[in-house]
Design goal:
Blueprint (H helix, E strand, L loop, with lengths): L11 E7 L4 E8 L1 H7 L6 H18 L7 E8 L3 E9 L8 E9 L16 E8 L7 E6 L5 H13 L3 E12 L2 E14 L25 H14 L4 H5 L5 H9 L4 E3 L3 E5 L5 H8 L4 H7 L6 E4 L6 E4 L15
Parallel strand pairs: 5-11
Antiparallel strand pairs: 1-2, 1-10, 1-11, 2-9, 3-4, 3-6, 4-5, 6-7, 8-9, 12-13
Amino acid sequence: MTQGNKIAWDDTVLPFQLDASDIRGRVARLDGVLEGILRQHDYPEKVEALVAEMALLAALIGQSIKLRWKLQLQVQSNGPVRMIATDYYGPSEDGEPARIRAYASYDADRITDAPVFDQVGEGYFAIMIDQGQGMTPYKGITPLAGGSLSSCAEAYFAQSEQLPTRFQLSFGKSSTPDESEHWRAGGVMLQHMPKASPFAAKTEGSGDILRPEDLVDGEEGENWLRANVLLDTVDPLELIGPSLPPTDLLLRLFHEETPRVFETQPVRFGCTCSEDRVRQSLSIYSAKDIEKMTTEEGRVTADCQFCSAHYDLDPKSVGFQAEATSGE
C-alpha cells in the first residue's frame, strides 16, 4: 500500500476491508468538492460546518451505491438551520467520478453561539436512494439526536438496516503558505459485514434508538469493539492533513486487522440543473399560471439552490401552452 504516496488523495473515497474482523469501511478526503459547494453561498461558519459534515457523510455512504444511482441525505428541523440537502450521484460509467452537491436553508437571525449541532434543533435525518426511472425510491428516517449528524447516520443504519456503523470525521478551515484559507474534510466509516443480526428478528423492545453496539455480541462484538477502539486513536489532523495517505493511515490504525484496499472512487462537485430541466419543471403550468410567475420586467426567472445558477426565460416559451404561442 506504499503506492498511496504517489496518488493525489483529495476528493477521493478509498474502500477497504478488515479481513480479521469482518468489517468493511471507507476513507474519504474532500477539498475541491467542498470549495465547489460552499463558494456558491455566503453561509455563516456554523452552517458551513454542517454542510461540510453532510457532504462528507454523503461521500462515505454513497460510495457503495451502483452506477447512475442517486443518494440523497437530508435534514429537516425546526432549528435555525431548517434544511440541509446533499445529493450524491453515482458514476455514469466505471472509472468516472461520482458527483456531490449540497445546500442549506437557514434563518440568519436565529443562528446562535451554541455548538454546531444545536443549530438544527428537533427534526429528522433522512436517507433516500433513487435507483432510476421505473424504480420506487427508498427512504428511511431517524430523529435528530446524538450530538452530531454522523451520530444520526449511525442511528439510521442501526435502526433501518441493522448494520453496526461508525463514523470518525474531521472538517474545518485549512490554511497553508501557498493556499488561501478553505474548507477541508476527511473521515473514516466502519461497517460490520451484512449478516443476520440476532436482534433483527425480535419484535419487542423499548422503542429507544438503536446504537451500533446493540447489534453485535460474542466474537463479532469483540471484533467490533476492537476496531472501534483502534479508530478512536486517530488524530483529526490525520483525517484531513495532506501529508498522510489514507493507505498509511489504515496501516497505522488497523495493521493487526489485515486491511485490504480496493479501487479508489474520485468525487467531484457537480450540479444537474440546466435550462432544459427548468423548462421541464414549468411544463405543467398553463399560460395563465406562467403569467402569475412573470416579473415586472416581463421574464420568468429561476435560481438553483445548489449552485446558484440563474435562469432567465421568456414567459411565452415555457408552460404546456408554449408551443401554441411562440418560442424564445
